[in-house]
Hints:
There is one protein chain. The protein is α/β, with parallel strands linked by helices. It folds into three domains: 1-35, no CATH class; 50-187, 3-Layer(aba) Sandwich (Lysozyme-like), CATH 3.40.80.10; 196-271, Muramoyl-pentapeptide Carboxypeptidase, domain 1. It is built from ten helices and seven strands. It has a five-stranded mixed sheet, with helices on both faces. The chain has a two-stranded antiparallel sheet with strand order 4-5. The longest helix is centred in the middle third of the chain and has 18 residues, at 138-155. Residues 1-20 have low confidence and may be disordered. Bound molecules: zinc ion (ZN).
Amino acid sequence: MKCSFQVFGMSALMVLVSGCRLLQPETPDERNFAVNEVHASRNYNARIRQIVLHYTVIDFERSLAVLKGETGRSVSAHYLINDRPNKQYPDYIYRLMPEDKRAWHAGVSQWGRDANINNSSIGIEIVNPDGNLHPYPDEQMEAVIFLLRQLIERHQIDPVNVVGHSDVAPGRKIDPGSLFPWKTLYDNGIGAWYDEADVEALRKTITAVPSVEQVKADLGTYGYPVDATPDADETYRAVVEAFQRHFAPGRIDGEMDLENYRILKALLKKYR
Length: 272
Ligand SMILES: [Zn+2]
């Protein structure tokens, strides 16, 4: 018998008497709730907007245990990149969760208008004890490049949004470190880098570092979180260090010098 429900009148009584379940009259299939996709909105952006690179500090096996959640720590990443494949762990690239899930890799963070970067990024942990001291092996970097090419293509990531943990959490994090080969990545079509010709041209027009306010504004325009903490001066130095670690790793001291500033302006000219 097909159930119908009217609040008032005899049919409700009859339904109750006949034992039908009023709230489950039919299965959804029977109702044919087709999703109509004729009307499309143009007002949206991508959920995944950044790729954040890290080094693990610890070796592959221990990194795997931590990132899988076996040690009780609330940290994770979408990908873990091995440094020395072996019989037990024969691959370079390990995916630990689907890319649409939210991994816990960035912590308190900001890039451009996005805060809490875990919400909008893919996290990649690269096995290295300290990327400020230990160079990344070539073959491991080839694996990183292979993976990044796929991710950038799949999610249409802006070059400026391929970043290090230190870029999005300056003063708190120093990974993937000053030895991470950002320029090599750029030469392989990944991420942002300045054009030397632009810097050369700017040597003629920029002959002094402007005020801290102006430098901060320029760093902020590029994406750096210049106003992230209450202590403005310390934040500024930390952000300059993060910038140097990425684009001018020869000297990392929190002092924006003339050549650093020309590099920043060359990046802005090219990307912003
Ligand atoms: Zn990190």
